[in-house]
Write a structure and sequence with these properties.
This protein is α+β, with helices and mostly antiparallel strands. The protein is built from 41 helices and 19 strands. Strands 2-1-4-5-7-11-10 form a seven-stranded mixed sheet, with no helix packed on it. It binds zinc ion. It comes from Chiloscyllium punctatum (Brownbanded bambooshark).
Length: 1031
Amino acid sequence: MTSASGNATGLEILLSTLQSSYDVQNTLSILQILDELLSAGTVKRIRYMISKGGSEALLHTLINMTRIFPPNYDVLLPLLHLIIKVGQRDKRFGQKAQEIGAINETLNLLKHSLPQPKYVTPCLWVLKIYATSVVTGAALGKSGITRLLFKLISPYTTRNTKAVRRAVDNGYIHRLLKLYQDWHQRDTQNRFTSIHKALLNCIKNITNIQAGKKAFLQADGMRVLLSASQAYGSSPGLQPVIKLATQVMRKCHPKQPLPLLTVRSCYSFLLPNAADSQPLACSSMFPQDVIAMKEDDEEQDDEDNIENEEPVCNEDDDDLETDLTRLRPNPQLDRAVEELKQYERLCPELTGYFQDSGRNPNGPSGGCILNPSKHKTKKMHLSMQRPSVDSSKACIQTVTGEERPHFLSQSWSIDSEQNGQHAGYKLSQMRREMVPFHDPHVYTMMAEKTRSASDYKSLAFPDYWGHISPVYQEPLTGQWSGHQRDKIFEDIQRLVSPGDILNKVVFDADSLPLVTSEDDISLKFYSHFESGNLRKAIQIRKYEYDLIMNADINTELQHQWFYFKLSGMRAGIPYRFNIINCEKTNSQFNYGMQPVMYSVHEALCGRPHWIRVGSDIYYYKNHYCRYNAATRGKKEASYYTLTFTITFLHSKDVCYLAYHYPYTYSTLMTHLHLLEESLNPDQVYFRHQTLCSTLGGNRCPVITITASPGAQCEQLRQFWNRQYVVLTARVHPGESNASWVIKGTLEFLMSNDPIARSLRDSYIFKIIPMLNPDGVVNGCHRCSLSGEDLNRQWSDPKPDLHPTIYHTKGLLSYLRSIGKTPLVYCDYHGHSRKKNVFMYGCSLKETLWQARSSIDTATLKEDIGYRTIPKVLDKISPAFAMNRCCFLVQKSREATARVVVWREIGVLRSYTMESTYCGCDQGKYNGLQLGTQELEEVGAKFCAGLLKLKKEEWSCSKQLITEDGAVFDSDNELPNDRRVTPSDGSVDDEPPCSEEIDYDTDNCTEEDDDSIDLAAELSGTSEDELELDKN
Ligand SMILES: [Zn+2]
């Protein structure tokens, strides 16, 4: 009481005593009295206390009490509460705190209180009151408050859903957004980006739960973040902030079903014995139901989804076969020898038939003795005349009853109109010289016979007219870095400003008649032709379209292949196209691949080329959700958008766009027909037979090529002793690259090239160039009409559901049964997520090594001849890359052609050869995309590589050695170290696991790397903290 003067009030005495006391009990008593005094009255009492030096007294007390260590919260808590009560009414409180020197003490207290949230809150309130003074706020900043605050925030970044929920319930998201907006607007120099980021991180974490997302949307968060992100500009320092904002927006974007009534294919096919053979990929749920479910049960972190996108089975050694009995070829026929006799007819070279000379004047022989088509052949007008412009339109309009119209393309009529009358006719004569092994007239004939589930009635112009590879090779586009975000922003803009969106359906394959736009500003789309795939086109903005692909027939999956016609464009304007229902988690479209386009205008000017087109090509996850039959719709995944921009050269052109260079079934039949016409029967023994009829009623051709024998007895013996090479292709219809490769093989084998001659002398080639004609015809990507992947049926193919596989296996079994097990079997495929051309084979030892099996491989014998062909191809085929090959046997692939032919038929050299849809990152074609010419070259070089197998027993001419010397250079040694072929787990064409693209090596700058952020956060060190620590 010494400091109290005579006229001091009781309050002043109390305050004076308080601030000079170091005794906890005394202090506590005075605090209680003060609290009671203030609780009873109104705000006036507080003001009065302030006027008597209350603030200063409390701050001094705070300093005194924080000097006690460890902190005594029994006194500190009431003190802090009183400070809050008073400080809120004192406008100069912050300033006073600074003058008295209480700031550091308060921060220290906060630091000590960090582990105990209940003590943290009052400290924060006090600091908040300090910060109402701008000067004090700055001082707090200098004293390192932000670092402390970040530490505080981090517990919320883990999965503390309770805390997050509290944050949502208390409306923090709204406040955070306001705060963020405030910082963004006032921090015009963007000097405090770590604060922007911190706020965004808070928002991001709160939006991990559904309620948080909802609150974010209600608070107009999308608009706030979008406009801020767009305003940030392109300064590199701001990119992390924009990225974070983008992640939040993408995460919060409401999930939607595709704008379709059902995702099931719009065409269906009634299977034989339909009742008991329902296709597998079937779910009765509509997307809407699934979304409702999701909203109900899902209260968990969306980042789960993001994590799941990481490659699941990279180096999935668990999948490797380690059972020795299954790792050794164990040939045994699964059919009776009697039954196999039916395949005798497919080996006419082994009977006396060949003496009639190789050529069969009646063209394709055979017929479908095995699977007589249940489809009655319709009576058709098979016009043998070249189509003329005038008649074409009329034909289309006179579709009546049972009659099938002339197979004249709608495109044909449109295309011709704009180019003057009869231009097409004149050019069609010109072009016969231009495109080798193609003829529009023959094509029309072949197309007449082709059966489709959708019963299309027009031809696509490029297939009709033919394609020639341009003379130049097209480079990989590199990465369109920086603009993916702009595309995503444009997508989000639709949600923020729905009024600007046209949302006009301009094409819909589901509605009959097909909707096509009639006005001038919209593009016109069309896909109702062979291999066509486009289900719906929606105009979004004046020059932007959303496109939806059709699922494979009898499924609701496999969206990848597209092929459609478009017209009505204006030259010089960039059109943006978004294919919004892609399924794969990544794509070579992110790494330099472009789709292909064919311009009718250009073709009629003598440039009939499919060329790579498109700029600003990106592939990213979108907000459309798909429900997966495999998960019974419980947790749906997202679709992906492939976006690209095309600026057309000519107005009112008719163009065709495709995923990859189309190659239809009718093209194949045309090609085979013309090959047969071109051959010299004295030199080439060529047979075109029908393996069987497909479910859809198309003939599956099987080709035999070898050298015609001479008449001498010795020559005949040599002929019969030739070894077999069996090649198949295009089991996956979307892999049109495989068809171009087999085209190269066929043409090379028929050619006068000395190597081809030697090959014919040495081998009998059995080629089934299209294992899945129905899939190709109907524009499927992966399946047959049964809705199944035919390359998973080889273990037990069913004659009624998988006839082409059943009979190909039958033919191979037959060859084995007569002691003619093929020397080589290869199935040609296409690969959408890797570059180059490479092979998969089967090796016992490499598989055991990779699986780190305890089996002693030293005692096991293995013929390493399986490496010969890929090693030779590595030297002679520019696109081929040995180091991408893999010879591991995976359990999940045991029903594929490669493994079954190796294991059951006993073919040591049994391969899958994969050709990229994209280009090469090694060798002569490094940096280039593959065109059809390069693909055909792959097919030719594959054959050349077979020569190596004849090295010992074959006396070759010196000329041949010099021509393809490399064939003979490579050695046959075992890989001397145990270095096993690099495997990324995807030992087959299209592995079930997600992508294997290496983001680092492919320099992907724009990927959504939430997972990395998440990892950093979970490890407890955020980037911000690191930055602050440096300061
Ligand atoms: Zn494939």
